[in-house]
Design goal:
Chain C: It is found in: Cell inner membrane; Cell membrane. The complex is a heterotrimer of chains A (377), B (266) and C (400). Chain A has 377 residues and is mainly α. Helices cover 68% and strands 0% of the residues of chain A. In chain C, 30% of the residues are buried. The chains are: A mainly alpha (377), B alpha/beta (266), C mainly alpha (400). At the A-C interface, helix 2, helix 8, helix 9, helix 13 and helix 15 of A face helix 1, helix 3, helix 4, helix 10 and helix 11 of C.
């Protein structure tokens, strides 16, 4: 019931002085004992794990740093071939990094996709900050995406025109992920609301869409986009491949996001719905002003996790031959001089993906902790 | 055992403590630290067979830690603890013996949500005491009747109120026929109207002569049932004695302050 | 809760409301909305459909599944059933389906084992072990699976050729042609011994159930392990001996430029399996960890205070509760492995997607090819969902 704490200043009764714990239990020694050597089995585990970690770390440093070749004179990869298996050939990265990042975009115009990547990152950072969670955020998105379009295509403001076939690398990955998100999210909200609707036909349509999409792999949708889509359109009308893949990704992400949003709608206390009804709001007022803002806030952490999954999944466009970051990496080593250095290239490309996903993952964990604290209070 | 026991203030239960027999629990200069925090300081305590001890004190005074050391849910780092003549140590067999003889009731009930009330009660008799199932169920029904909820036997814990759950927890512990019962703030998580039903059960248990150690803020219960009250503060036993003595003539400022706060709190 | 008989006056059915044809009537609005949405979706579907029919006519593509009976003429590297390029498309697709199942089933088993171990390691009190498990989970989940598959495939391809292959243990060769293992020359005796083992497993299970039932009756524990030893080891050995105890090992050996004999794991299958298992294990580890953490500490304490040994606490109290939390997300991970195995196409393992893709390129039957892929996966997904619904209903905790 009531927890009572004594006020130290008032209690004057004699009290034994607290002794410090035996030395074996505090400080570094205590920490090591408790966390690494608390029993013989624990000690054995620590030693075995330590052995493998150290051995692996030494091996990796030897391969990746000490024995590595960092650069070679133009495309002469012989030095790399000589140390294959013993040392890494980072020269392939030195040689090909512009290609991996920007694909076949005209070399002297590379500042444009580079700027686009920075703009994307800036957009993500701004969207992640809670104090920017206002209506103006939508305007920022529209403005930034327009600037990005102008930069990529060019043809105005003295920028030379670059056809979409020449785009590639990181900008493509970011475009697929960002536009996919921007369109999939509203779609997901509509579908989630539809699935909770009392109208049977609408509910059935939404259930069908979600379950159908979630039941098949993304690849089959991408194949559909690349092979079947042309059949769906009237003769003579054609949509380019990137846009078709983008549509497949939007449909795919929409279904998964819809399930997350639906989770938020379900988690919202019934009282909120009833209170909104009692105020006499219409369905759309109720949803827009009362329900959605709260439901979305509840599911931000799982939403971010879905974004991460979806960012990684954009790499699947490799299979239908779209030139994203991973495809650029894979293409960079097709050239005979650099064949067989996949490990180095994939490690580098992986590092780029990791930076984006890890940042999102940490952000989601931080946000979750913050929201939980809010709820406890 | 009286079935409809009425709690009247002052109507105390006769003492059943047997001071001639060896002590049920003996703690000798027990020390414990959580990291650098000294939570039990040279605690020495002896509880006779059949004795009822109430441990009270402000939160964070180490009283829960004290009774959790008795069945080794916490391990002490210095000193000795003997339960029913067996010393607590790393010896697994000694621990098994002690845990069979010591029943425990928790603040948050800790009933097993995936088992029915009856299964909660028969689990340990069957798998620890190796009692045939039919016999274990008979025994469980007997104790469920004693705590006055036999009709809930087929339900799951989630379907019961807090007070009912806590009474099941008491019955579950009793099914092991323990010699000693530990109560760790058994009424703290309950709504006021349910506290009485749990206290009634504990009073009638006290009447059977069970050795009990209760951590509780219920001073009425202490007055009625306890042979001895132990007051703890900041990890040490500050004062102990008969309840009437303790409550009317507190010898230390710390107990006086604690009592005044408790009375204000109620 | 109370089931007292109701006053008959309270049992009257509510009156049926008449539909008013007015925009103010909620039900009218509902019907209008539904007609509108279904109409728009239907119109789009019809438009796409008519375009497709028209396009197919223009391109003179015949629809239908008649092509399945035609000779496929496509070579397949590895197959569980006998196959040659002269077989039909139907058989080729069956081979692909079996290849998908082969990688999915093995992957599910291995990922579960590895994921559970990593999940438990993350909860370990050993700081080093739990940190390493944590780093593994974080890194593996933040990299695209396709990238990981390409990475493993690149590593396997960078291995030396068969002549310089790695030979860590006698009879085991690892080269850019894959992994070679020694294998028994399979004979009837082995089949019977395997059957005997299965029968022994069933027998052990029955005996364990019977032993528990008897224990519940009289409280006398009956050890299961002697019977298990006899049924699982003794019986198969006896059957094997009765058939003459044949024992010929088929050692892989270098002949010319490649290996002969032994059991082969192609680099494609090996890379796909490795990638899928490592990737999914990262997710399973988190599920297992969350499941175990979902059981409150008080449950452990209460069970221990009752005198239950740690093993019994785990078996009777913690696992039954943790599994309720673990099984549903675990099933969706199993589904993910199956769906993700379709990435095989990127490294040349011939699963159902890869073969259907080749089929539709060769025959031009795009719609049918993709329909087959979707049908296969939908069937698998649907059956797993049905199982999950059944299971969830079975284990739901009873609350008020």
């Amino acid at each position: 019931m009531s927890d009572i704490t004594l006020d130290t200043a008032v209690a004057k009764a004699p009290e034994a002085a607290p002794r410090t714990a035996p030395l074996s239990q505090i400080g570094l020694a205590g920490w090591l004992r408790a966390n690494l050597f608390s029993s013989w089995i624990n000690t054995a585990v620590t030693l075995v794990v330590l052995y493998f970690v150290v051995r692996w770390a030494i091996g990796f440093i030897e391969w990746g740093v000490i024995n590595a070749v960092w650069s070679v004179p133009d495309n002469q990869s012989q030095a790399c071939r000589d140390i294959k298996g013993v040392g890494a050939c980072w020269a392939v990265i030195a040689e090909k990094h512009r290609f991996i990042l920007f694909g076949t975009y005209p070399y002297e115009e590379h500042w444009r996709p580079a700027l686009v990547c920075l703009l994307f990152v800036g957009l993500y950072v701004v969207s992640a900050m809670r104090r920017f969670w206002r209506k103006e955020l939508a305007l920022i998105w529209i403005a930034t995406l327009t600037v990005i379009g102008v930069l990529m295509w060019g043809g105005v403001f003295g920028l030379s025109y670059v056809p979409q076939e020449r785009w590639g690398g990181l900008p493509i990955t970011l475009i697929l992920a960002t536009f996919g998100l921007a369109f999939a999210f509203p779609l997901a909200i509509l579908v989630a609301l539809g699935r909770r609707s009392k109208l049977p036909a609408i509910k059935a349509l939404c259930v069908l869409y979600v379950e159908l999409i979630r039941g098949v792999p993304l690849i089959s949708l991408l194949f559909m986009a690349s092979v079947m889509f042309p059949l769906f359109l009237p003769e003579g009308m054609n949509i380019d491949k990137l846009l078709r893949a983008q549509i497949a990704i939007i449909l795919f992400a929409g279904a998964y996001l819809a399930e997350v949003v639906r989770g938020g709608l379900q988690a919202l206390p019934k009282g909120q719905y009833e209170a909104a009804d009692a105020l006499g709001l219409s369905y759309w007022q109720k949803t827009g002003f009362i329900i959605l803002p709260q439901a979305l806030r509840l599911v931000i952490p799982p939403l971010v996790n879905t974004f991460i999954g979806f960012f990684k999944d954009t790499s699947l466009v490799l299979i239908i031959g779209i030139f994203d970051l991973l495809t650029a990496g894979k293409t960079a080593i097709i050239e005979p001089a650099w064949q067989g250095f996949g490990v180095e290239v994939y490690l580098t490309v992986g590092a780029i993906y990791f930076v984006f996903c890890f940042a999102m993952s940490k952000y989601s964990q931080g946000l979750e902790a913050e929201l939980n604290r809010h709820r406890v209070r | 055992m009286s079935d409809n026991l009425v709690l009247e203030p002052g109507a105390s239960v006769a003492s059943t403590a047997r001071t001639d027999a060896p002590p049920a629990i003996l703690m000798d200069r027990v020390n414990k630290w959580f990291g650098a925090l000294h939570v039990l300081r040279d605690v020495t305590l002896s509880v006779a067979l059949g004795e009822r001890v109430v441990v009270c004190g402000p939160s964070g005074s180490g009283k829960s830690t004290l009774i959790r050391c008795i069945n080794r849910l916490e391990t002490h780092q210095e000193g000795r603890i003997l339960v029913d003549g067996t010393e607590l140590s790393d010896d697994v067999r000694a621990l098994d013996t002690i845990r069979r003889e010591v029943g425990m009731v928790f603040q948050s009930f800790n009933l097993f949500p995936h088992l029915t009330i009856l299964e909660n009660c028969t689990l340990a008799p069957i798998w620890v005491r190796r009692m045939p199932k039919a016999q274990a169920e008979e025994l469980a029904m007997e104790y469920l009747t004693r705590v006055r909820i036999p009709e809930q036997a087929k339900k799951y814990p989630g379907q019961l109120s807090g007070g009912q759950q806590q009474r099941v927890a008491i019955a579950r512990a009793l099914c092991m026929k323990p010699k000693i019962m530990l109560f760790d703030e058994p009424t703290s998580a309950l709504d006021p109207e349910m506290i009485k039903e749990v206290l009634d059960t504990m009073v009638s248990l006290a009447e059977t002569g069970m050795t009990m150690i209760c951590v509780t803020h219920e001073m009425g219960f202490a007055r009625q049932v306890a042979d001895r009250v132990v007051f703890m503060d900041r990890g040490e036993i500050v004062e102990q004695g008969a309840p009437a003595d303790m409550f009317e003539n507190p010898k230390t400022d710390r107990l006086r302050l604690f009592l005044s706060q408790i009375l204000r709190g109620h | 809760m109370s089931q007292t008989t109701m006053d008959p006056r309270l049992l009257r059915a509510p009156p049926k409301r008449k539909l008013r044809l007015s925009w103010a009537d909620e039900r009218v609005r509902g019907i209008v909305w539904q007609v509108l949405v279904v109409g728009v979706v239907g119109a789009i579907a019809y438009w796409l459909w008519s375009n497709t029919v028209h396009n197919l006519e223009v391109r003179r593509i015949a629809t239908g599944f008649g092509f399945l009976d035609r000779e496929a003429g496509l070579p397949i590297g590895e197959s569980l059933i006998p196959y040659s390029p002269t077989d039909t498309y139907l058989r080729a697709l069956t081979v692909g389906l079996l290849n998908t199942l082969k990688v999915a089933v093995v992957g599910i088993v291995l990922a579960t084992v590895l994921g559970t171990l990593v999940g438990i390691a993350r909860l370990s009190r050993n700081w080093l072990l739990s940190k390493i498990a944590g780093v593994y989970v974080e890194v593996i989940r933040d990299l695209p699976l396709l990238l990981q598959l390409l990475f493993w495939y690149a590593i396997l391809q960078a291995l030396p050729g068969p002549r310089q292959s790695l030979n860590p243990v006698e009879g085991v060769f690892l080269s850019n042609r894959g992994l070679k293992l020694p294998w028994l020359e399979w004979q009837d005796a082995h089949t019977y011994a395997l059957l005997a083992f299965v029968a022994g497993a069933v027998g052990t299970w029955l005996w364990a159930r019977r032993a528990t039932a008897l224990f519940l009756q009289d409280g006398k524990p009956r050890p299961v392990w002697p019977a298990a030893l006899g049924l699982l080891v003794g019986l198969p050995l006896a059957v094997w001996a009765a058939f003459g105890a044949p024992w010929t090992v088929d050692w892989p050996a270098l002949r010319g430029f490649n290996f002969r004999g032994g059991l082969t794991m192609t680099p494609e299958y090996f890379a796909l399996l490795l990638g899928l298992v490592l990737y999914t294990a990262g997710f399973i580890a988190e599920i297992v960890r969350a499941g175990i953490l979902a059981v409150p500490k008080g449950q452990w304490e209460a069970a221990q205070a009752l005198g239950l040994r740690p093993g019994a606490v785990l078996k009777r109290i913690v696992l039954p509760q943790a599994l309720r939390v673990i099984i549903p997300p675990m099933t969706s991970q199993y589904l993910n492995i199956t769906k993700n195995s379709s990435l095989a196409v990127a490294i040349g393992y011939q699963d159902i997607v890869s073969i259907a893709n080749t089929t539709l390129n060769q025959t031009g039957q795009a719609i049918e090819g993709i329909a087959i892929i979707m049908l296969v996966y939908l069937t698998i997904s649907l059956s797993i969902s049905l199982f999950m619904n059944w299971y969830n209903a079975r284990i739901a905790l009873v609350e008020r």
